[in-house]
Amino acid sequence: QEAKRQHDFVFFYSEGLDEQHLRKLDILEHLDYAAENDELTLLLQPKIETQSGKTIGAEALLRWNSEKLGFVGPDEFIPLAEQSGLIKKLTQWVFRQSASYLRHLNAPDSFSLSINLSAIDLLSDEILSVIAELEKDMPALNRHLVLEVTESAIVSDPDAAIERLTWLREKGYQVSIDDYGTGYSSLEQMRRLPVTELKIDRAFVQYLVSSPVDQSIVRSTIQLAHELGLSVVAEGVEDTESWEWLKKQKCDVLQGFYFSKPISFNDFNNRLQGESCD
Ligand code: C2E
Ligand code: MG
Ligand code: MG
Ligand code: MG
Questions:
Q1: Which domain of life is it from (predicted)?
Q2: Strands, DSSP E only, in the chain?
Q3: Nearest-CA neighbor of 141 among 115, 119, 161, 121?
Q4: Pair 100, 84: CB distance under 8 Å
Q5: Is the predicted pLDDT of residue 56 greater than 90, yes or no?
Q6: Predicted interface score ipTM higher than 0.90
Q7: Does position 81 have pLDDT exceeding 70, yes or no?
Q8: Residue 116 C-alpha to ligand 4 middle, in angstroms?
Q9: CA–CA gap between residue 212 and residue 218 (Å, rounded)
Q10: Are 32 and 256 in contact (CB under 8 A)?
């Protein structure tokens, strides 16, 4: 009896692992040609200037609708693409698509588009070549592209990351620290980072209205960022109360479902056109 139960358990357990493993292999196999197969889309989520309520930019967010696997979310495929190195190929696609969006948006000259870079991208030669390629047709790319990197992308090799970020800054690109507060960067590291923007992670914004602790964290982060000369973005704003609170605290830019979910290029362009008419 005992042995049988053990056996069942082992069987069940290994079956679970197999399924997980197969899913991973499936994803990596199909993700490899997702770009060529026209299965990728880049959605845009508006970035709103807190004081004016105007759309001043957008974050580009990758979506994958696989012919074989159906819709797969970035939280599932991005980590796998990072582990396998496939992310470099996806990021090149994101860069090219973003440049194309910038060329075709009815946006004011001050508009900027933020794209997410993984740790591997930040240190890779591929981003150098794709940037050089795009700048040939678009010399002003640097004035319209913001590169978002997470604290964890920097913590793994701070010196190399700082060197690359400095290069990007010298070329005129804006650099943003994404998901701020969830990593382990020290204040000393923050001070050394050549960045222009800090994005407070959604985890601290979500319960802002009811959590005095989160209010303290967000308030002091905004103050610190401003003292370091950085612009502050709050991500994950979902209600009026949080918006009003963040406005009072002089948070510069807001992003969240309260304003808009990530939307298609056409919907975003219509939104911009609508705003320029008011
Ligand atoms: P992220 O860069 O921190 O992007 C913000 C995420 O929060 C997005 O999820 C966005 O849809 C979601 N979000 C925005 N406002 C709200 C809100 O008010 N409430 C809630 N609940 N969520 C909100 P998404 O698009 O699923 O992306 C998840 C993560 O996947 C991103 O986090 C980023 O780390 C990664 N990712 C997405 N696209 C790319 C990409 O092109 N390259 C890389 N390397 N990573 C990407
Ligand atoms: Mg981001
Ligand atoms: Mg984020
Ligand atoms: Mg995130």
A1: Bacteria
A2: 40-49, 55-66, 70-72, 112-116, 145-150, 174-180, 197-200, 231-235, 253-255
A3: 115
A4: no
A5: yes
A6: yes
A7: yes
A8: 9
A9: 10
A10: no
User: Pairing state of beta strands 112-116 and 70-72?
Assistant: unpaired
Report CA(139)–ligand 2 centroid distance (Å).
Answer: 24
Torsion of CA 269, 270, 276, 278, to 10 degrees: -160
Q: Which atom of ligand 1 is nearest to the CA of 62?
A: 38
Which ligand 1 atom is the nearest neighbour of the CA of 117? Answer: 44
Encoded tokens for 142:
């640097």
pLDDT at 3: 43
Q: What is the DSSP string of 32-47?
A: TTTTTTT-EEEEEEEE
Q: Round to whole Å and give the CA distance between 73 and 62.
A: 9
Secondary element (H or E) of residue 245: helix 240-248
194 lines ligand 1 (CB under 6 A): no
Instruction: Determine the distance from the C-alpha atom of residue 75 to the mean position of all C-alpha atoms in its chain, rounded to a whole number.
Output: 11
Mean pLDDT of 40-50: 98
Q: Which helix (H) or strand (E) holds 168?
A: helix 158-170
Count Cβ atoms within 10 A of the Cβ of residue 240 and give its class: 0-12 exposed, 13-18 middle, 19 or more buried: exposed
Measured CA to CA, the distance from residue 272 to residue 204 in angstroms comes to 29
Rounded to whole angstroms, how far apart are CA atoms 200 and 251?
10
From 39, 61, 268, the mutation candidate for ligand 1 (largest count of ligand atoms within 8 A of CB) is 61
